[in-house]
Amino acid sequence: MVLKTVNSSTRSPATAMQGLPTVGIIGGGQLGRMMAMAAHTLGLGVVILDPTPGSPAAQVVHRSIVAPFNSLQDLRRLAGATDLLTVENEWVESQLLFQLEAEGVRVHPGAQTLALIQDKYCQREHLKAAGVPVPRFQAVASCPEAEACAREWGFPVVLKARLQGYDGRGVKIVYSVTELRQGWLELGNHPLLIEAYVPFEREVAVMVARSTTGESCIYPVVETHQHNQVCHSVTAPAELSSTMRDQCAALALRSVECFDGVGIYGVEIFLGANGEAIVNELAPRPHNSGHYTIEACFTNQFEQHLRAILGLPLGRPDLQVPAAVMVNILASADQEALNPSLDAVLAIEGVKLHWYGKRSARTGRKLGHLTAVAAERTTALERALRARAALDV
């Protein structure tokens, strides 16, 4: 539901520019790919910057810059070829974005927002200061310091890399001092955060869009299911009471607003046995838990992100189907060449395949996703899982 509009009289829509704008995307992974595809439907230009030649996003745009994320010179090249910049990951150094903003470049999410969110400790501090419930946490500089926290809080605890952790990488749930010391050896060459383990019953997620105009909208609350700390599937809508749905939606919006965020944000939430909702973390970009929106919602998360950063009216975020399930396609083994078998998958009613165009696979790498829609959740899940089983990757 679209919630509010602030200062709508000052809206400067993208279409008021000289022709339709060109968006520069920092990052060429699958999120950049799907964002670029959404941009094409709106008639927007797209330029990608990514260090990998032939990246998934570069395959669907006319122009890409092959360069590292943290080269100010190459970021300036991207800015010079576009009307504004956005990100599909949190790997660019925020200080470089501060520099670009000082030079007059429009960047969404802004450098300050990204700086606070990309460091998980700073993100948690900011959420806590805004009164958002989060797990107990502390930055730790040594293994003995982490051990002291674990002994005070009790095991299990979670060790996290403060920067660039994703898809379960940079995260260790440890159940003893021995496991904590091993986890420290594996992660300790990066700044770390330790947090108390939350004995949650369910994990849910909410996509929130916030425009440059102040307009906001909230997508349906979905339930996420993890395998080995990586999202395996997403069910929309989550089977929750209306009271709990409203609580999660309000918590997600409050979390995004406290960062003054612009664009689309994925908010991960733990639900406890007693009905308490605790924010795990935010992603300042399109999110895996929002992929279902492509088939299931009136406005998908990628188009909504573009609308938000360009100051265009936000689209309806609500479901246009009764139920949807998204299942990630994770590589089961290392492979140099990928040749998915499409026939059996595409024969299943209500299933859409999204293949990301990655040239090779390593175990656990996201190669694509499947979304199934149906009249109710169990049918959608059965279709999605049957389609996943039919792929030979």
Question: Can you walk through the features of this model?
Answer:
There is one protein chain. A hairpin with a 5-residue loop joins strand 10 and strand 11. The chain starts with a strand and ends with a helix. The radius of gyration is 21 Å and the shape is globular. It has helices at 30-41, 72-80, 94-102, 111-118, 120-129, 143-153, 177-187, 242-258, 293-296, 301-310, 343-346, 377-390; strands spanning 2-4, 22-26, 45-50, 63-66, 84-87, 137-140, 157-161, 171-174, 192-196, 202-210, 216-218, 222-227, 230-236, 263-271, 277-283, 323-330, 351-355, 366-374. It has 3 domains: 2-118, Rossmann fold, CATH 3.40.50; 136-196, ATP-grasp fold, A domain (Dna Ligase, domain 1); 202-390, ATP-grasp fold, B domain (D-amino Acid Aminotransferase, Chain A, domain 1), CATH 3.30.470.20. Mean pLDDT is 92; it is low at 4-17. The strands form 3 sheets. Strands 1, 10, 11, 12, 13, 14, 15, 16, 17 and 18 form a 10-stranded antiparallel sheet that branches. Strands 4-3-2-5 form a 4-stranded parallel sheet, sandwiched between helices. Strands 6-9-7-8 form a 4-stranded antiparallel sheet, with helices on both faces. The protein contains 12 helices and 18 strands. The protein has 393 residues and is of the alpha+beta class.
